[in-house]
């Protein structure tokens, strides 16, 4: 998924200086951003209040949108570096193409995991014949320095492990949860899980107290640690938790995101994650000169041009504003 904001800001985040070491209940409200021709997303990370949760550095929630008479998602070829993209759907399907030759249709509760490493480009679109509804989330994971120049690759996993309790099914997207391990490749201690609760359910989900966590509400009416969370909003939970109380008033869906606080400071601009302004500047130049990021074959349309860089580098501000 691309960041299509034409006024993309340069931000430096990461480091442990602003990690909340104890449990908190910090409700994050989204920023609404147009994505392509007919999709509007709710951007939860980076947020005015918080930029990262573990290695999770970017979270968009979209839908459910009725696209029966619309083209649906149409994101032209664009570049990435220094990160992984995680595509997660509740409704609809997304056709993924990339510059290493991948061509996959991602469907609900299947993991589409693209590791950009040193450089990749890709496109995402609703197939010409597509379902009526489109609903999902797109997320980025920052790669640590030891792995941020790995060879780019794409993984598609259709059979993911689950953790169950009365009224709760947790599908493991990335990392580990309650003894289950995702087949997706992770480069930092991390967890991502899709939580489905039935109406009236009360459950306690085991957590790692060394991780920081947040919960993204996807659908339904429910409470997370006693806090009502509306669809399209995110509750940041801090660290120091060994379990998470959940209660559903109706059938409800969430995404649990967590991980060890990311120690390195990163510079994130447009669709790149690097370590300096100069590195981002070089990546932008390479994309505009059609070098390094490869070519996406088969997409019917022009690739995205990069926005202009800001007049000067942003000073490090840590994980929060």
TrEMBL record:
Name of the protein: Pirin family protein
InterPro entries for the chain: Pirin (IPR012093), Pirin_C_dom (IPR008778), Pirin_N_dom (IPR003829), RmlC-like_jellyroll (IPR014710), RmlC_Cupin_sf (IPR011051)
PANTHER family in the record: PIRIN, PIRIN-RELATED
Species whose genome carries this gene: Streptomyces sanglieri
Similarity comment: Belongs to the pirin family.
UniProt domain Pirin C-terminal: residue ranges: 193-290
One Pfam family cited in the UniProt record for this chain: Pirin_C
Domain Pirin N-terminal, first and last residues per copy: 41-141
CDD domains registered for this protein in UniProt: cupin_pirin_C
